[in-house]
Amino acid sequence: MRIFNTLTRKKEVFKPIVPGKVGIYVCGPTVYDYIHIGNARPMIVFDTLRRYFEYKGYEVNYVSNFTDVDDKIIKRAIEDGVDSSVISEKYIEECKKDMKALNVRPATTHPQATKEIPDMIDMVETLIDKEHAYEKNGTVYFRTRSFKDYGKLSHKNIDELESGHRAEAHQLKVSGEDEKEDELDFVLWKPKKEGEPSWGSPWGDGRPGWHLECSVMSKKYIGGTIDIHAGGEDLIFPHHENEIAQSEAANGTEFARYWMHNGFLKINNEKMSKSLGNFFTVRDICAKYDPQVIRFFMLSAQYRSPLNFSEELVIAAKNGLERILTCAEKLRDVIGTSDDASESELTLEEQAVLDGIKPYIERYEEAMDDDLNTADAISVIFELVKYINTNINSDSSKTLAKALYNTLEKLSDVMGIIIEAKSDSLDSEIEALIEERQQARKNRDFAKADEIRDKLLGVGIELKDTREGVKWKRI
Ligand code: AMP
Ligand code: ZN
């Protein structure tokens, strides 16, 4: 597989540190509100990367953090008059619900910054010992110029950065960082302010800087050198540049071998922002569209390209997804209706049909191997769907239909697209509501029982009370 490495600005052949294994660290969201549709892009893209590595037989250690201590969380907690952990815990749970809806699998580990403070203090101490950091009145700064390779990821020249910073110098003073030795230095540890969460440290009560969190958590859960570090392109500078500086200065080893950055999601060709009124949470969008459509839409472009979110493009994704789902349904019909006798050896003609899917699989893998080109891989799935539609009919054998179905399922699953019939989970939801209605009737709460019946009717489910119990049908 070839990956575009931000560090070298080239597509490079991926070579794992340990053969057959890959450690991936993806910067996760700051949890002060529901995640927005832009945050969903790295989640979906890198979940697909993980699935593809697994498809290729790798064992993947996938780590993605929650930033649960941050100015925005503290601000929100003060506004709501609660402890900041109440805000972060709530939005971690909400974020997990959105991830589930988008079929983003839980990470191997989802570390939280507030639970890793002792290791953060350790790394700051190491940096001070090695003279890469210093303390001034309870704040610890990283001595940026002490790290010779600073700027290697963002391809920035340290002197240009210096002059850029000088222009912003007055701003830095306002933010209380005017004691720094150098304008380029950044904070590793901040002293406590009244009303803020804090932890004890050798430099007094305080909290870690954002960049430090990822350096510490990736080391703890993956190792001193990680295979792939990923996130949105806005994180290249300063976040990832600072992570490299801290980690390499502290550990003395290369921090991450491949850096992958997703392009930004725009809304109707504009930057998403609350003030422009084009800011959408995943929750809002999933109420309007099937989350599977959103996932499919996100993968309709290669991850480094900018992606524009518009109704028109989402509808195009919906139609595309339906073509795949209709094909899957057709195969299921053949599997369900063919008599058992047809689950036998393939005829020569059928064997030829089955052999005919190999080039599609090869081209799909070629696309995915080329820096995770999901856009091309999806086009190959469409071609495969066309091939299946022309080569399968009600007389086809169960064996052939099953083999084609399994391939379609395998390729779709890498994309996080579920082709199996939805009814199972829907059925269990309906059964649960019917059970609730029965309970209400038993308790003579007829108002509630009627309310549940009407609710089901509203989604096209009609109930019928029979001697054998309640039966339901779609209308
Ligand atoms: P944040 O909570 O802002 O740190 O963002 C969490 C992740 O979402 C990071 O990897 C960001 O780069 C990414 N991200 C934020 N906004 C967008 C966007 N509009 N498009 C794509 N990725 C985004
Ligand atoms: Zn990070």
Describe this protein's structure.
The protein has helices spanning 40-55, 71-80, 84-101, 117-129, 158-167, 169-174, 210-221, 236-251, 282-288, 291-298, 311-337, 348-355, 358-369, 374-391, 398-414, 423-442, 446-458; strands at 2-5, 10-13, 21-26, 59-64, 133-136, 139-142, 186-191, 206-208, 226-232, 256-262, 265-267, 307-309, 461-466, 469-474. The protein has a four-stranded parallel beta sheet, sandwiched between helices. A four-stranded antiparallel beta sheet has the order 5-6-7-8. Helix 4 crosses helix 7 and helix 7 (210-221) packs across helix 8 (236-251). The model has no long low-confidence stretch (mean pLDDT 93). It has 17 helices and 14 strands. The protein is globular, with a radius of gyration of 27 Å. 38% of the residues are buried. The protein is of the alpha/beta class. It starts with a strand and ends with a strand. The structure holds adenosine monophosphate and zinc ion (ZN). Zinc ion binds next to loops.
Index terms:
single chain; 475 residues; alpha/beta; 4-stranded parallel sheet; 4-stranded antiparallel sheet; 17 helices; 49% helix; binds adenosine monophosphate; binds zinc ion
